[in-house]
Design goal:
The protein contains 16 helices and eleven strands. The protein is an alpha+beta fold. It is flat.
């Protein structure tokens, strides 16, 4: 019996270990394999291996199996063994240290770039995680939020309170997001030095801010509010018992100053609602501007999302402003027409009153009522003038807030782009060093590669070849002009392909080198956030067209085009 129990425990442990080897990931709109692999700190190949068919593409809401590498809880290791395809930036992010500190700690080891299998020193300098104020020390472990996990289940798993989990990770106070990386300490956190004490204070302050945000409610969709207010406009007419279309009042069918006075009152109420919407829009735009000023942007991806959301919000806001201006203009047009009719009818009634005053003394009983009506109309005119002044002030404020938001948005995105590009430049330079070493080894192995690269046709030979072959009948040659790219020389470049990620870029550069293109290189186009892989830099358009036509049948150049670099 004892052996059976032991056997059962062994089997249970084995099954549990198997369950822990993977987790599921639900694909969201716009995601690709490279982004998912980056999120879980694995390679695309790791995903392809256990998800057959994904190399041909993935779809929204598809469930992917992610290897257990993704949920390893990293502690404060002193060294790290470099794995294939790893970058310095990726290792720095893995251990939550800066690229500069990692480089400074491994000056000698990194002089020739990262080497697979090499052990590099991890500095004991923790930074904040994902730019958020977090409590992190030597005992901190990290947990990636899986599908359907809750704050309760995570805190129970590690034997801590939800309050401690939120204090250490303030960004989850308003809800967990699948894929979030959480910092967790299973023991009570006690500061060992001034830095850790400051870390705790910052995290607690951030937690307080997030809790305060959770209590504050605001209408996020301005368009919904506009729809609600339009319904309120109709209620104004209903409350005043007016079954009349304000745009279609026909004076030829009769009417009285009393009835038109009621219509004016209804119109005035509608205008007040429009002004309240303007007020609400000013408050919302002010809040959005303040939120933007206080928002931390950690990397280029986040800045791109911010830019997309902000410009979408700006577009919606501009649409609302145009609609409000139109509504107010229509309202004023109606008011002006009605006021003209009121004045005309009032004059007619006064004339009729004077005509009959000697014939029927009973008219005197209506004198006070007419005087009251004239006073009401006068008050309406005064309020209309005040409303128009208020409208002008509000639109001036809205224009000012719009300008401020655009300035702040550009400043924040510029800052995020600077810090993100610094890390990318570092990785790119290392990749270029590795590529050059790869090309030198290729030349040492096969000297003919160097000879082939030096055999260039003369200008006359190129002109003759272009003249003899009527290339214009074939597929049109795409020529792109790029201006003022940093550190890129003027000239014509034969571009083999473009990439948004480093891994496929490096794969193609090696393939091109192996095919004999030992001058292959790449540069980054910051305008579209893409790498351009080129094989040659040429002096003029004729040379570029000649080279293009030599290569166009080669499968490696199926996406080939020409880029002209200019410095203004």
């Amino acid at each position: 019996m004892k052996y059976l129990v032991l056997l059962f425990l062994c089997i249970s442990n084995f099954v549990f270990a198997q369950q822990e080897k993977t987790l599921n990931h639900k694909v969201i709109k716009g995601e690709n394999i490279f982004q998912i692999a980056k999120t879980y700190n694995i390679t695309p190949s790791d995903i392809y291996k256990i998800n057959p068919g994904t190399e041909n593409g993935i779809q929204e809401n598809q469930i992917l199996i992610i290897p257990n590498k993704a949920i390893i809880l990293y502690d404060s290791k002193n060294t790290h063994q470099v794995q294939p395809k790893e970058t310095l930036f990726g290792i720095a992010r893995l251990y939550n240290v800066s690229v500069q500190d990692l480089d400074n700690s491994n000056t000698e080891a990194l002089k020739d770039g990262l080497q697979i299998g090499e052990n590099i020193v991890i500095p004991n300098k923790k930074k904040t995680l994902n730019g958020q104020a977090r409590i992190i020390n030597a005992e901190t472990i990290f947990h990636i939020v899986a599908s359907k996990e809750t704050k309760y289940s995570i805190s129970k798993k590690y034997g801590i309170s939800i309050e401690q989990l939120e204090t250490q990770n303030p960004e989850i106070i308003n809800g967990l997001i699948e894929g979030n990386k959480l910092a967790i300490n299973t023991k009570k956190i006690k500061p060992n030095n001034d830095n850790e004490e400051l870390m705790i204070a910052l995290a607690e302050k951030q937690a307080a801010i997030e809790k305060n945000k959770a209590k504050t409610t605001e209408i996020e969709d301005l368009q919904d509010k506009l729809t609600v207010q339009k319904q309120m406009n109709q209620k104004v007419l209903k409350v005043n018992s007016l079954k009349v279309n304000l745009n279609e009042i026909d004076e030829t069918k009769g009417g009285s100053a009393k009835k038109l006075k009621l219509v004016l009152e209804a119109n005035k109420n509608i205008q007040e609602i429009l002004i309240s919407k303007l007020d609400s829009l000013v408050v919302t735009m002010s809040d959005n501007l303040e939120t933007l000023k206080n928002k931390d942007i950690n990397d280029l991806e986040e800045s791109k999302n911010l830019e997309k959301d902000s410009y979408k919000n700006i577009s919606e806001t501009n649409g609302m402003i145009i609609e409000l201006k139109k509504d107010l203009a229509d309202n004023r047009k109606i008011y002006t027409g009605l006021m003209t009719k009121v004045q005309r009818i009032t004059l007619a009634e006064n004339h009729e009153y004077k005509k009959k005053i000697n014939e029927n003394q009973k008219i005197k009983n209506n004198t006070s009522e007419d005087a009251e009506l004239l006073e009401v109309i006068k008050n309406i005119q005064t309020k209309q003038e005040a409303n128009e002044k208020r409208n002008k002030q509000l639109f001036t404020k809205i224009d000012s807030l719009g300008v401020q938001k655009n300035i702040e948005l550009k400043r924040r995105i510029s800052k995020a782009t600077f810090y993100s590009s610094e890390a990318r430049d570092y990785d790119d330079k290392l990749a270029q060093v590795k590529l050059k070493r790869y090309q030198n080894k290729a030349v040492e192995t096969n000297k003919k590669l160097l000879d082939n690269s030096e055999n260039k046709p003369t200008a006359e030979q190129i002109k003759k070849a272009l003249k003899d072959h009527n290339y214009s009948q074939g597929k049109a040659v795409k020529i792109e002009i790029l201006r003022n790219l940093k550190d890129i020389e003027n000239g014509y470049y034969i571009i083999a392909d473009t990439f948004s990620e480093a891994e496929p870029r490096d794969l193609l550069t090696r393939k091109l080198t192996d095919s004999g293109e030992i001058n292959t290189g790449f540069f980054y186009n910051v305008n579209i956030f893409s790498y351009y892989v080129f094989t040659k830099k040429l002096k003029n358009a004729n040379e570029a067209l000649f080279e293009y036509n030599l290569k166009k049948e080669n499968p490696l150049y199926k996406n080939m085009f020409i880029v002209q670099i200019e410095k203004e």
